[in-house]
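agent> call fold_tool(seq_1)
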Amino acid sequence: MIAEKTTLTLRLTGLLILITLGFGASGFAQSGEKPEKAAAREEISLPENAEMRQRLHAHVEHLGGTIGERNLWRFADLEAAAAYIENQLAAAGCTPAAQTYEVHGKQVRNIIAEIKGRDQPDEIVVIGAHYDSVRGSPGANDNASGVAALLEMARLFCDRPQSRTLRLAAFVNEEPPFFKTEKMGSRVYAEAVREKGEQITAMVSLETIGYYSDEESSQRFPFPPLRFFYPTRGNFLAFVGNLGSRALLNQALEAFRGAETFPAEGLVAPGWLIGVDWSDHWAFWRAGYPAIMVTDTALFRYPHYHSPSDTPDKVDYPALAQVTQGLTSVIEALCND
């Protein structure tokens, strides 16, 4: 028993050291204020973002409202979501391709749109979002918000080749019971590109990115000591990576902060920390690629997570537009720097 307690103490101490090192290396907590005293998020309504907000709203409304719950148990709705994504990618000027595989006797698919790079086409940046929802939930924030941002990025980048190749990926079967199984869409995809020997230089998973709150103590944490390093108001976008993806996280966070006033925080932590691997980036870690998750932190903030009340009216569309705009700068940095 004493040995077990000693091991646990060392593990937690090691985590704190690693997280603290991550803060220093990644430029986290740069403000001189204590996190709980940080200023409320400044809402900015830029005229040029009005149309983007409308498009994002329309995507979330269609996926999370008109279609609603979409998964293998609501297969017609899963197919409707896939068709909608393919049509929107085509309308943006991309040519969507399907990676199809069988699950419980049904054909499901990942949807990939590739914009070939001008100068370094063999170096590939993947931006992904899962389009399925958990059983019993319409999945407006989780994850129609991420898909909406992905579709907006298609509109912005399909006719604008970057130096590196950009792939926009809508993944199926991220939610339980398929998460981390061989039937998880992003795992199927990551294993396929690894088998081909493709050079994925960066992967960014857009996971539940539409809910923000300026209320005190609205932000919770998977590891309580994190509250001493991060804001306790859930008004920021989180960039999350493992130790092997630190350089990627630094680059993405710097690009976002350089382009947007929207609050952003980063966390580099061991993959076993609760919540750090809860999205499609996990599949790319498993395949040996650098990958990060961009998120509003989901269940650590969002009261409607994985519930019937995860509906389109819960999404903060002005914030989602700011986040999406900032993420376009992240894509430009990853594809060109």
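agent> call fold_tool(seq_2)
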Amino acid sequence: MQALNLRAASTRLSAARPAPAVAVPTALPAVGRRARVTAQASVEAVDFNTKVFKKDLVKFAEREEYVVKGGRDKYALLPKAFEGIKQVGVIGWGSQAPAQAQNMRESFADAGLDIKVSIGLRGDSPSVAEAQACGFSKADGTLGEVFDIISSSDLVVLLISDAAQAKLYPRVLAAMKPGATLGLSHGFLLGVMQSDRVDFRKDINVVLVAPKGMGPSVRRLYEQGKTVNGAGINCSFAVHQVVRTLNNGKQHYCGVFHPDADKQNVLMTGCQDKKIYQWDLETGDCLQGMSDEDAFKRSVESITGPISRTISTKGMPAVYNGLDAAGKKVFEEAYTASFKPAMDICMEIYEDVASGNEIRSVVLAGSRFDRFPMGKIDQTYMWKVGQAVRAKRVEADIPVDPFTAGVYVATMMATVEVLREKGHPYSEICNESIIEAVDSLNPYMHARGVAFMVDNCSYTARLGSRKWAPRFDYILEQQAFVAIDNKEPGDKELFGKFLSDPVHGALAACSEMRPAVDIFVGGEGSDVGVGAGGARTEYRSTAAKVTAA
């Protein structure tokens, strides 16, 4: 789907697999390889076959997984990777579509490929003007009506809202050419179809490349990667269904890889969409005696600034180890009090997604947007204080608050534990729980506040933030902070497990493959990474209609 610098699992991947000639995952590794991996890591490796890109076996803590590393030096492989693809249709213009469409168009041009990237939108869509501003045009066939683009494309990248996917997928699938490839960016549609007890057409390919960040991050890191080879967004990928055309071009056979055989097939929202907790500045809890601006610095600024940077480059224990003795004591108290309450909510989110409840909730919410659009989330006093703080920010003066750090790291580790308990591989755990938050999302909050981060994401993530943030707020206030106020003893064993947790080794393995570039997006008044095809500063929510938005 994306001819750009991506990471498969926790590494960079230069292009996704649009056709079965490129990559076909195996449900299980060969017995001999499986035995070898088990002996080394006690868990079988996440394996796949590739005929174009080189795969590497990487050890993540006690487990091993195969990954594909990418970079602009891999562009010479794109002609083979996209063999047989004449047109890519990118459907929609939400969070991901502007980034993926522009990145593919530029990568194809750099690789000398004559592949057209076309945008499919409703004729009355307000996004038409934005697409035109990015160089897509009806005159040259790179901008057209949704189903016209779908029916003429060899690769259809479906990036309309999740609620729209739930309503439109029968028409989308019916419009696709036999042998074409459907590209997805997360597993929502598969979950909807499983709930509806229907399958994909047997004469199309179904693949997934899931960037671990919102669309503006995908675009911004790609742009920065033009000068730093290997810069890009980390991602997971999967092949759900492969159709192979026989030499006579008339007969097909199909191999389906079910989610039970390959958990990478279903990458849903929930715990995977990182929610960041800030306590209420106006309660005075743990912040008594501070000015409003100091309170903001010691909570939000501390998380999006030095805490995120430290986790990104050195890992979570480094946040704790960088504190003095008094700070370490506060961190430990905050961590041990917050971990189990946070995990309670993380588990609920995960199981709501797995059961289909969250899918149904998103679909229903999407149908209500005409009556009840999503409101603004940065209008309270707290976020107004944040604007003033950012206006006179001195990065070096932002403190690492030990209480904030303890609560934040505990919530992050709770997400890690839920995903690990549910059987996810470490590359995915690191991507979903840690890397996406500190390398992709938090920099946007750091630049312009919470709405700039949350509302540049998908509808599903935007809804999830509004739904679940109050739950985290309540449970931490009512359980974690009360325990601290009451001076209840912390769980020393729990904290010891944090310090020795194998996820730190897995994240260190990811860090070894981390490019030197950090995402950069401009703050208030800057147009860097902002505007047509980049991050938005005005946000809308539109009800799913009978044609795509």
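agent> summarizing second result for user.
Residues 78-267 form a domain with the Rossmann fold fold (CATH 3.40.50.720). The first strand starts at residue 6 and ends at 8.
agent> awaiting next instruction.
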